[in-house]
Specification:
This protein is mainly α. The protein has helices at residues 13-19, 26-38, 58-71, 85-98, 100-110, 119-135, and strands at residues 3-7, 42-46, 75-77. The chain folds into two domains: 1-81 and 117-137, Aldolase class I (TIM Barrel), CATH 3.20.20; 82-115. The longest helix has 17 residues, at 119-135. The radius of gyration is 18 Å and the shape is globular.
């Protein structure tokens, strides 16, 4: 079984343009999810990266999970932003320009290391779990045969 993972950071088009100016819009990514699913490909959507105080609310995570489910995604996940040193150097000026009220907090948390640890990531994983349960999406690929492939002789063993 083939599966494809698609990132959808947010369904808020203006926020998406801000954080990923060169990437396809969320609506285009979700259209791709739908088209892949319609053609028998198992697709998972990941709300990556989940950025503290930017797109980390339950409402934001739920919106991505709901849009993913509506597009036909078979599983859902997400993870907290990590900033390795080279990314940190690029992301901090972006924060200073677009979210100046968050720059100090990010600097304090990410100067110590690329990955956040402790209560915050645990809280985010709980929010993801709640969204998964709400939209009945497991955390990873599932074993299934797409309706499109059922009864198709070319996919049967033995040729």
């Amino acid at each position: 079984m083939i599966s494809v993972n698609m990132t959808v950071t947010t369904i808020d088009e203006s926020l998406a343009r801000l954080v990923e100016p060169m990437a396809p819009r969320p609506s285009r990514r979700l259209e791709a999810v739908s088209q892949l699913v319609q053609n028998g490909v198992q697709v998972g959507v990941f709300a990556n990266p989940i950025m503290p105080l930017i797109n980390d609310s339950q409402k934001s995570i739920d919106a991505v999970a709901g849009a993913a489910a509506e597009a036909g995604a078979k599983y859902f996940g997400g993870n907290v932003l990590f900033l390795k040193p080279c990314s940190f150097q690029v992301f901090l000026p972006f924060l200073k320009d677009e979210f100046p009220h968050l720059e100090r907090r990010y600097r304090e948390r990410y100067e110590r290391g690329a990955y956040l640890r402790g209560a915050y990531p645990e809280k985010i994983h709980e929010r993801i779990k709640i969204a998964r349960e709400r939209y009945k999406l497991p955390r990873g690929p599932i074993d299934y045969t797409p309706e499109l492939w059922e009864g198709d002789a070319q996919f049967e063993l033995g040729y």
